[in-house]
């Protein structure tokens, strides 16, 4: 942290700031310029912020040098993290594909989907049992019944499973069935939910909020990690912009930016990013090419009848073609699936 004093700051004002730094057992490095005095502070600065040092007489501004997220920060953990989900790992040599319906609807739908995506090479089955829908009148999910169907599909296929949780109740049910919890875009800053998900110790797939900056997203990951749970995987799923041609705008640059700022794995969800089936393939290619560790792709036995997100869901044939198309991209990036 750097404290920049005002040009007319008195010697007494500078002394008062230095005294506060010393009293709190922090180190001060003073640079006396011809116009302004700058004080560099080393150590845990949070105590100075609590003392409202920016309001001290003669202080112009505070400049943060390191980010507020520490556990998720690459500076303090330079090696890339690999997160184990069931018998799959995310962040290593494997390109991990999570696929399945937006919402779990029936046993037949989940079983057919699990068998089809496994055959095409996906490692993780996704399916929402608790659906955070924009309208309260839309299908809200089968809840525990949906979790049980996902578990049944896991037992019969060997696929790992990921399900979204939207409340503490949902977490308490989901931990009995799933390999990974998903925190959706709408809950990315539900700090209570983040902490509760952290406490479970289960891997957490943390989707980026609709309008969240990368800094806010990494701070959300920090909430989970601060509970002693390092198993966080980030998911870029498009952000709100002025563009209406697609459901959201895929921020593809988030992939290299996250790789530069954090050691956590990141996957891309082109289905929710675009909301349009035909754009899933080119964006999946782009995601792999810029270093994503995996993809989340919505599939459905019959997208026309899907209770949610039909227009962006792929048929099994389309998903199989997509997987075949993506293999050379994965190989180019030294990954396989
Ligand atoms: C989902 O994965 O089905 C979902 C609701 O995604 P998001 O939170 O990204 O909108
Ligand atoms: Mn969906």
Output the radius of gyration: 23 Å
CATH class label of the largest domain:
Alpha Beta
CATH fold assignment of the largest domain = TIM Barrel
Give the strand line-up of the largest sheet: 7-8-9-10-11-12-13-14
Q: What's the overall average pLDDT, rounded?
A: 96
Please explain how this structure is put together.
With 337 residues, this protein is α/β, with parallel strands linked by helices. The chain has helices spanning 11-23, 46-50, 107-120, 144-157, 168-174, 191-200, 214-225, 254-261, 270-274, 280-289, 316-332; strands at residues 2-5, 27-32, 37-42, 59-63, 83-85, 88-90, 96-100, 124-126, 160-164, 180-183, 204-207, 232-236, 266-268, 294-298. It has two domains: 2-63, 2-Layer Sandwich (Alpha-Beta Plaits), CATH 3.30.70.1140; 83-332, Alpha-Beta Barrel (TIM Barrel), CATH 3.20.20.70. The chain is built from eleven helices and 14 strands. Strands 7-8-9-10-11-12-13-14 form an eight-stranded parallel barrel, surrounded by seven helices. α6 links the parallel β10 (180-183) and β11. α3 runs parallel beside α4, α3 runs parallel beside α11 (316-332) and α6 crosses α7. The model has no long low-confidence stretch (mean pLDDT 96). The site of manganese (II) ion has 5 residues, from loops.
